[in-house]
């Protein structure tokens, strides 16, 4: 073998060794900001929640939320204004640019400590980049306010804050199991769970059947919205259907984090009317 051929072979071997040692670049997938397991090779919308798939989602960081309450001491049944200021977790500067999240810039869920009062509202964006919500808190005691928003250059956020209305005791709700069918404004809603007795830390399928299904429409960009809250208001989950196609069957997948009793609110829209139904599920531990 000639010396020149030997040099060529040696260089080829070095090149191959170098290539083997390299880590291939990960594919550039379009990802849902909310359901990160949903990926696609081309632009589009998430089949689950309807959000736009995007490239280059940053690692999730929690954005601090400063909540103001006016009046400072709310009155039971009186008007209250909730103000929300969002801070950049790296710089501390106020965030003023937000992405649309299910057709709105901000979703607010308000739940009373007895889990009987539930509101899904949409605060307005003010010129200074803060958000304002005006409503009423009908009962004394503690409320949890779940802020759902999507800061530009960040990731979707779910931040829970507490509001206190003097005059009542702060105590855990006493809930009883309730999976009975519900009649709402223009829908009958039935629920079946799989497994029948949910277990903490394991996925539970919540299978809803609606009747009638004619005129069933997407609500805020999804076939349904669900809020899950534990009886002590520590765990709060906002999620959307895992399987839905506009027909009478809608499936949500939920992993309940602890063995508690949970109140589940589900919202569906039919013929322009939003229907809200509440169910109560005891969640146990694996025996």
What distinguishing features does this structure have?
single chain; 287 residues; mainly beta; Immunoglobulin-like; five-stranded antiparallel sheet; globular
Structure description:
This protein has 287 residues and is mainly beta. Among the domains are: 89 residues, Immunoglobulin-like; 101 residues, Sandwich (Immunoglobulin-like), CATH 2.60.40. The chain contains one helix and 19 strands. Strands 14, 15, 16, 18 and 19 form a five-stranded antiparallel sheet that branches. Strands 3-4-8-7 form a four-stranded antiparallel sheet, with no helix packed on it. The longest helix is centred in the first third of the chain and has 18 residues. It is globular. It starts with a helix and ends in a 5-residue tail after the last strand. 26% of the residues are buried. About 6% of the residues have low confidence.
- The fold-level CATH name of the domain at 182-282 is Immunoglobulin-like
Order of helices and strands: HEEEEEEEEEEEEEEEEEEE
Overall pLDDT, averaged?
88
Structural class: mainly beta
Low-confidence stretches: 7-11, 14-26
User: What's the quaternary structure here?
Assistant: single chain
Distance between the amino and carboxyl termini? 72 Å
What would you call the shape? globular
- Record field, number of beta strands: 19
CATH superfamily of the domain at 182-282: Macroglobulin (MG2) domain
- Percent of sequence in beta strands: 35-45%
In the CATH hierarchy, the architecture of the domain at 182-282 is: Sandwich
Main sheet: strands, sense, barrel: 5 strands, antiparallel
> Helical element count?
1
Query: How helix-rich are the residues, as a percent range?
Result: under 10%
**CATH secondary-structure class of the domain at 182-282:** Mainly Beta
Rg calculated over all Cα atoms: 24 Å
